[in-house]
Every structure is written in structure tokens, then in C-alpha cells.
Amino acid sequence: MGTQSKYFLSHGNVYPAIALPWGMIFWTPQTGEMGNGWQYSYTDDKIRGFKQTHMPSLWMNDYGQFSIMPVTGELKIGEDKGASWVSHRLQIAKPYYYSAYLGDHDVTTAITTTEHAA
Predict the structure, then answer these.
(1) pLDDT at 110
(2) Is the pLDDT of residue 11 over 70?
(3) 3-state SS string for the chain
(4) Shortest CA distance to 44 belongs to which of 94, 98, 7, 74?
(5) Residue with more model confidence, 63 or 96
(6) Which residue(s) pair with 94 in the sheet?
(7) Dist. CA 95–CA 77, nearest whole Å
(8) Is residue 108 part of a domain?
(9) Which of 9, 33, 46, 59 could lock onto 83 through a cystine, CB 3.0 to 4.6 A?
(10) Is the pLDDT of residue 90 over 90?
């Protein structure tokens, strides 16, 4: 809810954050380009990585961010080259858990919260 928004028209602008309440960092699937602040959009069909973020809002750009992407086979450097097709039918999104099947890499990724990390 609230993830199907557009930059020019705000409709909630939330993303599927995996975190504990009052957590210092959040993990989220990243569909947008690194550094533009618009990290997730429900209508996108590719995941570029899984981003560690400090910001709970899309209207503020992040600091100290990084993204990781699980791949199989040949190593592909760069968020566009390593991106993978994803289907919402093959995702589970909860505040404490996220998983998705990454079709291009034939791997399922899962992230869950811990007290100090994920």
C-alpha cells in the first residue's frame, strides 16, 4: 500500500522496508537508480539490488547508502547489468521479512530483521 506512486504526484511514497520498530537502518528492494531517492516503485518489474538505507522517506535522499545483489553465474558489475526480473506473485513483503524470486539469476532472496542488522 502506498508504493504505486509517481514522482510528480505523491500518493504515499512508501517502500517495503524490512526493519524493527525504531531501527537505525532499513533494507528494501531497490527498483530505482542508486542516488535518486526514489528507490522503489511497485510498477517496476526489475530489482536492481537490495538497499541499506537510513531514510524512511522518498523525498529525502540518503547518505551512506549501498546496495547488494545476489547473482548466479558470471559476475555482472553495475546495477543495470545485474538487475533481475521479478514478479509480485513471487514476492512476500512483510515489515519483518521480504523475499523475491529473481528470475534472471534463478535465485530466491530473503531478508529478515535482527536486533542489530538484517
Answers:
(1) 94
(2) no
(3) CCCCCECCECCCCCCCCECCCCCCCEEEEECCCCCCCCCCCCCCCEECEEEEECCCCCCCCCCCCEEECCCCCCCCCCHHHHCEECCHHHEEEECCEEEEEECCCCEEEEEECCCCCC
(4) 7
(5) 96
(6) 97
(7) 29
(8) yes
(9) 46
(10) yes
Dihedral pair phi/psi, residue 9, rounded to 5°: -140, 110
Q: Which domain holds residue 108?
A: 26-112
User: Nearest to residue 28, comparing CAs of 89, 90, 95, 107?
Assistant: 95
9 located within any domain? no
pLDDT in tens, 27-48: 889 888 887 667 788 888 999 9
How far apart CA 52 and CA 25 sit, in angstroms, is 7
How far are the Cα atoms of 32, 58, 88 from residue 47, in angstroms, in the given order? 8, 17, 11
Q: Is residue 5 part of a domain?
A: no
CA distances from 8 to 5, 38, 47, 50, 59 (A): 9, 11, 22, 25, 11
The verdict on residue 79 lying in a domain is yes
